[in-house]
Specification:
The structure is a homodimer of 343-residue chains. By secondary structure, chain A is α/β, with parallel strands linked by helices. The longest helix of chain A has 20 residues, at 297-316. Chain A has helices at residues 6-13, 17-24, 32-45, 51-58, 74-89, 103-115, 133-140, 164-177, 193-208, 226-239, 251-263, 297-316, and strands at residues 63-68, 93-98, 120-123, 145-148, 158-162, 183-187, 218-220, 245-248, 273-275, 292-294, 325-328, 331-333. In chain A, the strands form 3 sheets. The first copy, chain A, has a 6-stranded parallel beta sheet, with helices on both faces. Chain A folds into 3 domains: 6-49, no CATH class; 61-162 and 298-329, Response regulator (Rossmann fold); 164-294, Response regulator (Rossmann fold). In chain A, helix 2 (17-24) packs across helix 3. The interface between A and B is large, with 51 and 50 residues. The structure holds a DNA duplex (16 and 16 nucleotides).
DNA sequence: CTGAAAGCGCTAACAC
DNA sequence: GTGTTAGCGCTTTCAG
C-alpha cells in the first residue's frame, strides 16, 4: 500500500500539487468546483498529510514536552492527565519524560525535547535542581516554557502554582476552628519552597489566632514516607500528650502518623485531629478518612497547557508574549480525621 | 540566533553539505582529517540535526505512541514509567494518550498517532473495545503494535501479559495454605478476560485442594470501588460467618471489605483472611497491610517497549518479524491481612 | 483561478 | 575522498 501524497492526488486529477494543497486548506483563491473534487478524492483515498514534511516547512511539530519529577505519584499523574486532555483539545500531542528528581536528567531531557523540536515545554523542577541556566537558555532560544507546581522566581516565564502559604494557613486555621489548641507541624527535610511556605502558613495561622508558636511542635522527618510518620507518632504518644492537632505537609506522612497514633490507643480525631496535604487517593480509604487540602492536579495540568497554548498563539500572531502566573485555588477537604466545626 | 545547519557548516569549512553529513556519521569514505575538522566545528557550534528533515528522509520518527486506558491509576502509571524508561534507553520518546476506557477515543487516538508517524504503538485495550478492526488495520499498514495487559487473541501481534489464571490460583492457594477453608471470591461486574481468568484460578485452587466450589461464595459488585467492598462486607458480617477467607480481584475492593469487616468487629486475619490483587501502593498503608498479588507494571512496561523495539530492528534489518507473547511473572506478596503459613 | 518553482534540512546514489 | 544531484512531501510566493 503505497503512501498517498499530494502529488498523487494532483496526478490523478490532472492538476498541480499546489492547487491540491490549497484546496484542502480552503484557500479563497481556489474555485469551489475544484475544492469539492479535491476534497472528495482526498477523503476517498483517506489522504493524510505527512507530518514530517509539514513540520519541516512550518517549523512546528504540534508536539509539546512535559517533564515530571515522578510519574508514579497521585498528584503528578493527575497533572499528566490534565495536560494531555487540554493538549488533545487543541490538537497537540504530549511527550512525557521523567526527571526522577535529578538535575542531570532534567537537563538531558530538556535537550532531547529540544532536539525533537517540540513547540514548547512544561516543567516541574526536580528537587535537586538548584540553578536554572538550562531553562533560561532554552527560553532565550525562543522555546516557550511554562513552569508548574515547583517553580522559581529566577526563571522568567508563565507559571501555574498553588498558594502554599495560604493553603498551610487554611489547614491550620481549620484545625483551630475545630477546637485544636496545641497543633504540631510535620514536614520533610528537603526545603523546596513549597514546604517552607506551608510552614509559614502554619505559623501565620497560629499567630492570627493568638496561639503561641512553639518550635518543639515542629517535627522534621528524614523522608516523606509512611514509616517516618510512625516515628513522629511514637514520639507524640510517649512525650507529647498535650498535642491535640497535627498538620502534615503530605498525606502520606499524615497517614503514617494517624495509623500509629491509633495503634498507641490515641483516638483520631477525639484525642488528636489530623490534617494532611494534597488530597491523594489514599485519603479516602484510611480509617478514619483523612481531612486534607485539595491540590487540584488535573486543573493545574490543564491550566499549564493553556498558558503554553496562549504563548504559542501570541508568537504565531506576532504579538509580544506576556507571561502570567496563575494561582490555582486549593480548599480544605473536611473528612473524619478532624472534628466537625462547632457551630 | 539563526538555526545552524549542515549547509552552514559546509559553507564555513568550504566543503559540501554531503561531506559534512557523512563525516558526522563516520562514513568510512571520509578522510580522518576532515572528520575531525567537521566534528570540532559542529561541536563548537552546538550543531543539532533537524529532526523533521531526518524523519522526512528516513521515514522514522524515533517516537512511539502509548495508549493507556486510565493514567491516574497505580498499575498503569507504573506501566508508563517502565515504557518511558526503556524507550529513553534506546533513544525513543513516548507520546502518551488516554482512552478513558472508550472505544471511540481509542480509535481516534490511534489515528492521531499514526498521523504523527510514530514508529510503533503500545496499547492496552479499553474495557469497551469489542472489535479489533482498528488495530488490525494499522498492523496491516505495517505499523508495529504491541498489546499489553489487556490483549486479545484476535489481534496478531506481540503481547505482554500476566497469567491471571495462575495468579488467581496462587492467591487462593495461599489462603488455603494459611488455613482458610471457606473462601469467598469478590469480583467486579465487567467481564474482561482478566477477571474471568482470576476467577478460574480461584476455582482451580479450590478443586485441587478438595474444597467444594460454592457459587454463593462468589460476590459480584457493581463497580470496583472501595465502597462496593463495604456492601460485601456487610453481607458477610450479617449472614456469612462461616467465611474465613476472601480473594478479591482488586486491591481497592479488598481494602473496602477489610475496613468494613473490622468495623463490624470481625478480626483480620484472625477471623477472616483477605487477599487483594495488583499490589497497589495503598496495600502498604492499610491496617493491617494487605496481602496481595504483585502485578509488576514497571517491568511489564519495559518489556512491552522491548518487544516493540525488537520488531523495529527486525524491520530495519529486513528480517521477517516474529511475534512473541511474553508472560510476566506475578507473585504472592504476603502481608498482614493473611495468617502466616503454618510450618 | 491555477501552476511552476523554490526550498525547509538532510541523506544516499552516483559521478568525479 | 569529495562533491553533485536529486528528492523525501509539503507550502507559499509569484507569474500567468
Amino acid at each position: 500500500m503505497p503512501k498517498i501524497t499530494l502529488k498523487k492526488i494532483a496526478a490523478i486529477l490532472g492538476i498541480s500539487p499546489a492547487t491540491v494543497s490549497k484546496a484542502l486548506k480552503d484557500y479563497p483563491d481556489i474555485s469551489n468546483d475544484t475544492k469539492i473534487k479535491v476534497k472528495a478524492l482526498a477523503e476517498s483515498l483517506n489522504y493524510k498529510p505527512n507530518s514530517f514534511a509539514q513540520s519541516l516547512r512550518n517549523q512546528e511539530s504540534k508536539i509539546i514536552g512535559l517533564i515530571i519529577p515522578k510519574i508514579v505519584h497521585h498528584f503528578f499523574s493527575n497533572i499528566i492527565n490534565g495536560v494531555i486532555d487540554a493538549a488533545s483539545n487543541k490538537g497537540y500531542l504530549v511527550i512525557t519524560l521523567q526527571s526522577h528528581e535529578s538535575y542531570e536528567q532534567e537537563k538531558d531531557q530538556i535537550n532531547s525535547l529540544i532536539e525533537k523540536n517540540v513547540d514548547g515545554i512544561l516543567i516541574s523542577l526536580s528537587d535537586h535542581t538548584v540553578n536554572y541556566k538550562h531553562i533560561n537558555a532554552i527560553i532565550e532560544k525562543g522555546v516557550p516554557v511554562v513552569l508548574y507546581d515547583r517553580t522559581s522566581k529566577l526563571v522568567n516565564c508563565s507559571k501555574v502554582i498553588i498558594n502554599d502559604r495560604k493553603a498551610g494557613y487554611e489547614a491550620t486555621k481549620y484545625l483551630i476552628e475545630t477546637g485544636c489548641r496545641k497543633i504540631a507541624h510535620i514536614r520533610g527535610p528537603l526545603k523546596p519552597q513549597t514546604t517552607i511556605d506551608r510552614f509559614m502558613g502554619y505559623k501565620n495561622a497560629l499567630k492570627e489566632h493568638d496561639l503561641p508558636y512553639d518550635k518543639n511542635l515542629v517535627f522534621e522527618t528524614e523522608h516523606l514516607s509512611f514509616e517516618d510518620g510512625f516515628e513522629v507518632a511514637e514520639e507524640i504518644a510517649k512525650h507529647r500528650h498535650d498535642i491535640d492537632g497535627v498538620f502534615s505537609t503530605t498525606d502520606l506522612l499524615a497517614t503514617g502518623v494517624m495509623v500509629k497514633l491509633q495503634q498507641k490507643g490515641i483516638k483520631v480525631p477525639d484525642d488528636i485531629s489530623i490534617m494532611g496535604f494534597s488530597n491523594w487517593f489514599l485519603t479516602k480509604i484510611t480509617t478514619p478518612t483523612l481531612s486534607t487540602i485539595d491540590q487540584p492536579g488535573y486543573e493545574m495540568g490543564r491550566k499549564t497547557f493553556d498558558l503554553l497554548y496562549d504563548e504559542l498563539c501570541q508568537i504565531k500572531n506576532g504579538e509580544s508574549v506576556s507571561h502570567e502566573v496563575v494561582e490555582i485555588a486549593t480548599r480544605v477537604v473536611p473528612r473524619n480525621s478532624t472534628k466537625f466545626i462547632e457551630s
